[in-house]
Amino acid sequence: MSRLRHSAIYPRWPGLCESHSWSTKHIHCHYYSHITFFSLYNLSHSHPSFILTTKTTNMPLLDLLLLAFAFFFLRWWWRKWSTTGAGPKNLPPGPPGWPIVGNLFQVILQRRHFIYVIRDLRQKYGPIFTMQMGQRTLIIVTNADLIHEALIQRGPLFASRPKDSPIRLIFSMGKCAINSAEYGPLWRSLRRNFVTEMINPLRIKQCSWIRKWAMEAHMRRVREEAQENGFVEVMSNCRLTICSILICLCFGAKIEEQRIKSIESILKDVMLITLPKLPDFLPVLTPLFRRQVRQARELRKKQVELLAPLIRNRKRYVESEGKLGGAEMASPVGAAYVDSLFGLEVPGRGKLGEEELVTLVSEVISAGTDTSATAVEWALFHLVKDQEIQERLYREIVGCVGKEGVVTESDVEKMVYLGAIVKETFRRHPPSHFVLSHAATEETELGGYTIPKEASVEFYTAWLSEDPKMWEDPSEFRPGRFMNGGDGVDVDVTGTKGVRMMPFGVGRRICPAWSLGILHINMLLAKMVHAFQWLPIPNDPPSPAEKFAFTVVMKNPLKAVIVPRSL
Ligand code: HEM
């Protein structure tokens, strides 16, 4: 195997560019309770101030000895912790760190999101590099061949997840969730159950009424909002709609909008509080963060109080074979995700308790909401900017269902141009620039370097779809590239033959619900463009600036004027 060693043995910390133009932007990370650790940005808002005092003294021998000792001690730490790839550990190269804290404060002091830091480091350190973040070792992999080798060719070996922080453990009930479980029997059992019970093609069809119900409410809301404000805010409406579909898929219940909003808001708080904090990298600081652990426990309590009644109600409905449960119960017994969890026994835990069910349904709602809503927002951004693309899509929809028809799920499957727009959106704006953190199941090697078992392996996937060697004019939004004769026509997002874009990850941990996510996006886009023409607000064109908010979203949420098509 080729050794991807970098020339500089003690490279300097690179000068980092603040510009967010296409060439330097588009650097980023993932979402939900699936969230990886990339929110050090938050830490960078603290401003430690150091007060230095100086005093002239004569230096006795003891002081000199202490000074010499301190010097040798620091030198020893420096060699132990600075990751250059040349040390006995044979880690990939990387920026030299400071003693004890490694690169942690170098990242914090940059006061910008980790994904932007990584983007610049990739240019300097190449396809695989190491960052020492306090006591955590991160191996960043950015190259298509190495990603393919790790996640497809040697998939099982790189299919685990790293350790969770104490706060994340509170919400995951000790890693009892598909996204955080280590590669092993528990993960296999939870994932198999999710795939067979929630997203098998028959279940998806059986639940199409849920999407129909949510889409009708969505169109009503959009129309009302436009009447009231003169424009529509895309992201918040799409989030609410997708969240309501996922809640109904999980609990089989049509619940009122206010309750959906409360669930959406609490799950957002959960994502916020589980973002990495200093003790995740320097556990010695844990006692200083006791207040946050207390806050996390309180939030967990609220989350359970909000979701447990829905679980209990559904249980009553299932046990009474559909007789009890109240008017909001809408799915037949057995059709809701939570129904499959009531009787599930998983390796090492046996039957799942109520709190574990709260964790498992929360992960599904969080995982599927921001990701899909982000894609709809970016797609509509391009349709608003480029009316020709929008017109061509409208003609395709009308060609399929007519001007007065109703767009159905089988219709969107036939819409080739719509499919191309969605693929191009995922290529140009992958909702997360990294997949979730991976870990090796045992010490191994990649690209000629050692990958320790306890390291977090971070696959920086956004680069793939920006690489000019893989895409013609990668910064252009061109859905046509995914149609006949285009440079993306034979791209396979599952990455089996090779990876050119991977918005859903690839291999063992690939997003199990990617086709459901795409269905939600297709339906929302087709319905919205069929009913309205979407236009920029006069004198306020939408800006492509982006920011990290679990996914990489538009910095200024998209607002558009809508004109009913029938006019
Ligand atoms: C279209 C929008 C979506 C995108 C872009 C997306 C993306 C991803 C990515 C990048 C991963 C991590 C892969 C890895 O770690 O290698 C993932 C995992 C996951 N996603 Fe999605 N996802 C989407 C929709 C959904 C939906 C709708 C659901 C649930 C209904 C869902 C449930 C999950 C779960 C449970 C995992 C964890 C899989 C595991 O660790 O085995 N996702 N997704």
TrEMBL record:
It holds the Pfam family p450. InterPro entries: Cyt_P450, Cyt_P450_CS, Cyt_P450_E_grp-I, Cyt_P450_sf. One of its GO terms (molecular function) is heme binding. Its cofactor is heme. Keywords: Heme, Iron, Membrane, Metal-binding, Monooxygenase, Oxidoreductase, Transmembrane, Transmembrane helix. PROSITE patterns: CYTOCHROME_P450 (PS00086). Heme binds at residue 511. Belongs to the cytochrome P450 family. PANTHER family: CYTOCHROME P450 77A4, CYTOCHROME P450 98A9. This is Cytochrome P450. The lineage of its organism: Eukaryota, Viridiplantae, Streptophyta, Embryophyta, Tracheophyta.
